[in-house]
């Protein structure tokens, strides 16, 4: 993954390999009946505070992150190094893992209906695992790149590095809906790791120090989470970017990390 990007609305958006770039498509601005352009309301930028830090494997190239029943489930990338892991959150110790075949580059991960679903980047292939044993029980295919993965109550939600999210039936793996994501009139490309939290989709934007909070009905960004200070502290090399969002629903805890970061951080969003 090489940084190739442009700045959109103050957010750094980078491409992934040679296939992706920041989209220049934009929806027309809202207009009053008189035909005079109406300025879009500014999108709130919310600050965050670090509540607690936990150890994280500094050699884990984090591509997907999920919290489930007291443990973290993590998908790591890079060919020959990609894996699926179950991690003790307090110690960062890997309790269970399985390596992907060396030709695959691991990407997003989610747990849905008692199964683990993991994407790969360019292979248009995803893997399904038994939750308890990590035994691979199947695979599925999609027509785009695979970046981030989460789910709502009914469907898997996949990002592919563009500004589009795909809502996919987990039984047939057919796309049920495509949602384009915009911040006002500007397309938000390079949507990466995803997490569905309380009816909204949270998305890392590759090579951006912000997290987008997206309305899944309209595709509009409702708020940006400002992670600039955290990213500046944790990122050690150009590709070691912010990437990884996990939510503990029962404990109402929100976690973030990044590629090759030495820490997992529990954060609180300042909603003002």
Description:
It is a single chain. The chain has 272 residues and is mainly β. The chain has one domain (42-269): YVTN repeat-like/Quinoprotein amine dehydrogenase (Methylamine Dehydrogenase, Chain H). The protein has one helix spanning 228-234, and strands at 5-8, 11-14, 45-55, 62-68, 71-76, 83-88, 94-99, 106-112, 115-120, 125-130, 136-141, 149-151, 156-159, 164-168, 175-180, 182-183, 186-187, 191-197, 200-205, 210-214, 221-226, 242-248, 253-258, 263-269. An 8-stranded mixed β-sheet has the order 18-19-20-21-3-24-23-22. The longest helix has 7 residues, at 228-234.
Distinctive features:
single chain; mainly beta; 8-stranded mixed sheet; 24 strands; disordered N terminus
């Amino acid at each position: 993954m090489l940084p190739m990007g442009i700045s959109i609305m103050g957010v750094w958006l980078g491409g992934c390999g040679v296939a992706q770039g920041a989209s220049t498509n934009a929806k027309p601005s809202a207009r009053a009946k008189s035909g005079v352009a109406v300025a879009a309301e500014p999108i709130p930028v919310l600050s965050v505070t670090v509540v607690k830090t936990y150890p994280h494997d500094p050699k884990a190239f984090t591509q997907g992150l999920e919290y489930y029943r007291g443990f973290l489930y993590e998908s790591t990338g890079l060919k020959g190094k990609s894996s699926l892991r179950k991690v003790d959150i307090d110690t960062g110790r890997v309790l269970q893992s399985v390596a992907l075949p060396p030709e695959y580059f691991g990407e997003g991960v989610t747990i849905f209906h008692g199964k683990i679903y993991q994407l790969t980047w360019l292979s248009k292939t995803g893997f399904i695992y038994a939750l308890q044993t990590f035994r691979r029980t199947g695979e599925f295919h999609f027509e785009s790149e695979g970046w981030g993965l989460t789910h709502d109550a009914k469907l898997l939600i996949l990002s592919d590095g563009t500004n589009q999210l795909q809502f996919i039936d987990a039984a047939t793996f057919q796309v049920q809906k495509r949602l384009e994501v915009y911040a006002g009139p500007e397309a938000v490309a390079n949507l990466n790791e995803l997490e569905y939290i309380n009816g909204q989709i949270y998305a890392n934007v590759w090579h951006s120090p912000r997290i987008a909070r997206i309305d899944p009905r309209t595709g509009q960004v409702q708020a940006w989470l400002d992670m600039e200070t955290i990213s500046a502290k944790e990122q050690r090399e150009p590709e070691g970017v912010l990437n990884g969002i996990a939510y503990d629903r029962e404990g109402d805890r929100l976690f973030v990390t990044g590629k090759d970061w030495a820490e997992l951080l529990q954060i609180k969003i300042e909603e003002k």
